[in-house]
Amino acid sequence: MKVVSFDLDGTIFKKGLDDIFWNRLIPELVAREKGMNMDDAVGYVLKEYDSVGSGDIRWYIPEYWFDRFGIAHDLLDALLNVMEEEYYAHGMYDDAHLLADICKRYTLIISTCNPPAMARRKLSIIARNTGARIDGLFSSISYGMVKSSMFYSMVCRELNLRPESILHVGDDITQDLRIPRSVGMQAVLMDRGCEGEEGGGGAGHGSGMTLNGHDGLDHHADTANTSTYTYACVTVVCSMEELAGMLIGV
Predict the structure, then answer these.
(1) Of 53, 141, 154, 233, which sits most exposed with the smallest number of CB within 10 A?
(2) Cβ partners under 8 Å of residue 113, min gap 6
């Protein structure tokens, strides 16, 4: 194994951070631009999100929504500055500093559904707060898709690596586990709650799925001192510390 690929939200950054952007900051701009009160703006924006839906690639693209809501694009950088300094800068999991140790042995890349503008801000925080070197950013949105088998195959081709030489780590049982495994990559599920406690849902832009018992995955502790567990040859870790222990023995 040569490369470790990481998802961002629910893996390195706490879930729900981007909900602030989508469900609060954008409605604030809409309220100002359209002369609406905040409650009406929130309801309007969420209804518009739902009319497109997460199955449509446009749902993930800030620039599309700025055009749709009649918001000037130069305000996007201002909103992303707020996100970076007020939320992303304080939104990493406490154990994310271990990325700096993992990158000493493996090449690290990011494979995410975050739009590039958001993902780049998070990479800036990773570098600033952990010192870890990230050698590649792969946003599925740049390829016009969510994280699919085609996306992961393209990542392998761009890195000029066989799929089995890449380990992907993420919190979504479909997009971060089943799909990368389907193209031959290794994959580890990161369950930060270990009981399906983290997740999103609801109307509008949400923070993702709740594992809810990992779709049938049951706890089988590997040792008495860790919550890492396996099921049907799937490894599930509950922290970056456990992942680092598995990869580099720290």
Answers:
(1) 233
(2) 60, 139, 140, 141, 146, 147, 175
Convert the pLDDT of each residue in 23-65 to its tens digit. Answer: 999 999 999 999 999 999 999 999 999 999 988 999 999 999 9
If one looks up domain 3-14+93-248 in CATH, what number appears? 3.40.50.1000
Contacts of 213 (CB under 8 A, 6+ apart): 195, 196
Whether 204 shows a pLDDT value over 90: the answer reads no
Which long-range CB contacts under 8 A does 76-83 form with residues at least 24 apart?
Answer: 76/117, 79/21, 79/25, 79/26, 79/29, 80/21, 80/117, 80/118, 80/121, 82/25, 83/17, 83/18, 83/20, 83/21, 83/25, 83/118, 83/121
Confidence (pTM): 0.85
Report the 10 Å Cβ neighbour count for 57.
Answer: 17
Amino acid making up residue 54: S
The helix/strand/coil state of 62 is helix
Q: What is the spatial distance between Cα 222 and Cα 103, in angstroms, rounded to a whole number?
A: 25
Place of tokens 């925080």: 125
pLDDT digits (tens, 9 = 90+) for 76-128: 999 999 999 999 999 999 999 999 999 999 999 999 999 999 999 999 999 99
Nearest to 142 by CA among 165, 111, 166, 106: 111
Q: Which tokens sit at 41?
A: 């703006």
The runs of H, that is alpha helices, within the chain are 17-20, 26-34, 38-52, 62-69, 74-82, 99-102, 116-130, 149-159, 179-182, 240-248
> Alpha-carbon distance 68 to 135, whole Å?
34
